[in-house]
Q: What sequence folds into this?
């Protein structure tokens, strides 16, 4: 049966550092704004299941946007003259500028992988700007990823091969069609974009020096992690718990590195109680 | 564990590479040329573009589709050590031409899937 999803998609021009970024976003629902941050090298389509979840959109205005250079957010003019490298400063500021451009008042943020790494940076730097921070597969420091960068943007190597790493980091217990969906999302990234994102994830992000200064209850920081991700094992989230006061961690036995898109059912099961807690928080 | 005589595999049409697979003490040379793959046990010439070395247990689990972490693709078994900061040890070691290895990862997994079962039906990763 043919049908139309309740998602609407638009563009917002986000001003940052004298540059206007035409930014694609999708949204559904009403209530508390929940802004979703995609993984490195991917785009907002990773959150299509969340955007279509009526139980969630009944109380949350779910918004997912493509970072510049990703998905349907084109790079700014002149992109061909520079090498794309995502920095911690730009990432934090762009998220804030996007929320301001949409006029969002203390939105909650939900991010996966690098979208979760940045939530640790935000928890330290601008904790009062957001209602809650839901970090999926976060790492305080993940130096390995940048070792892949020399292989990700070269003429003699098809970037599509990287989807094998995506597959290896996803769960064999997740639906095969959803795992293949994540591989497809990765296969369609722009040239050099994943390598540029990994610059932030591996080189510009290091939360270790300030983890002890984060109060999870005060900033509304929650951690979710799938067990099948070799890059975010229980030992890694336990280390976060040891450093961050009051941090709650929920592990997902059936998911890997991409819970929102790889295993939407398992993800929503752990997300719903967290969203209850987000609703109960006072800004 | 692995059958030989692989031909006309899907999505390998333009792939050409050689890989030395060390399974415990056994050595196998995998040759893929324009959609045709072959495995030679204990080859006289072990020259290859790249090699993948692991224990019989590691390879056996991967080829049997045991569903262990990282076993969905050979590259998972290679990088899970450094990607986890040593929390999970790597089960395969990759040497040789890394670009050639990465360029042919999808084909390599297709070939190994086909070689892992008598009827070429593929393992369940």
A:
């Amino acid at each position: 049966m043919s049908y139309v999803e309740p998602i609407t998609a638009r563009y917002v021009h986000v001003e940052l550092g004298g540059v206007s970024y035409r930014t694609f976003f999708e949204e559904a629902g009403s209530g508390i704004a929940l802004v979703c941050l995609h993984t490195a090298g991917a785009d907002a389509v990773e959150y299509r299941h969340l955007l279509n979840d009526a139980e969630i959109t009944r109380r949350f205005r779910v918004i997912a946007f493509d970072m510049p250079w990703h998905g349907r957010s084109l790079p700014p003019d002149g992109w061909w003259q520079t090498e794309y490298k995502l920095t911690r400063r730009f990432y934090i500021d762009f998220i804030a500028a996007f929320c301001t451009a949409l006029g969002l008042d203390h939105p909650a943020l939900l991010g996966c992988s690098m979208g979760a790494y940045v939530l640790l940076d935000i928890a330290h730097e601008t904790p009062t700007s957001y209602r809650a921070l839901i970090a999926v597969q976060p790492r305080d420091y993940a130096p390995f990823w940048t070792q892949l960068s020399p292989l990700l943007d070269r003429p003699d190597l098809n970037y599509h091969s990287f989807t094998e790493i995506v597959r290896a980091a996803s769960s064999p217990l997740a639906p095969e069609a959803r795992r293949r969906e994540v591989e497809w999302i990765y296969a369609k990234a722009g040239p050099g974009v994943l390598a540029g994102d990994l610059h932030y994830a591996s080189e510009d992000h290091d939360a270790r020096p300030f983890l002890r200064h984060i109060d999870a209850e005060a900033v509304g920081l929650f951690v979710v992690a799938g067990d099948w991700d070799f890059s975010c094992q229980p030992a890694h989230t336990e280390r976060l718990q040891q450093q961050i006061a009051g941090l709650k961690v929920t592990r997902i036995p059936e998911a890997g590195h991409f819970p929102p898109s790889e295993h939407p059912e398992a993800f929503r099961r752990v997300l719903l109680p967290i969203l209850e807690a987000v609703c109960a928080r006072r800004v | 564990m692995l059958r030989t005589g692989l031909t006309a595999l899907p999505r390998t049409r333009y792939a050409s590479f050689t890989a030395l697979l060390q399974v415990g003490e056994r050595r196998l040379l995998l040759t893929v040329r324009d959609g045709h793959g072959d495995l030679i046990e204990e080859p006289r010439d072990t020259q290859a573009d790249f090699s993948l070395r692991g224990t019989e247990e590691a390879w056996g689990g991967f080829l049997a589709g045991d569903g262990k972490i990282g076993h969905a693709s050979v590259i998972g078994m290679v990088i899970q050590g450094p990607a986890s900061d040593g929390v999970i040890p790597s089960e395969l070691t990759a040497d040789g031409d890394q670009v050639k290895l990465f360029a042919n990862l999808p084909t390599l997994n297709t070939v190994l899937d086909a070689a892992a079962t008598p009827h070429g039906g593929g393992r369940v990763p």
Remarks:
- Strands of chain A lie at 8-16, 19-28, 32-37, 60-65, 108-112, 133-136, 221-226, 248-252.
- The first helix of chain A runs from residue 48 to 51.
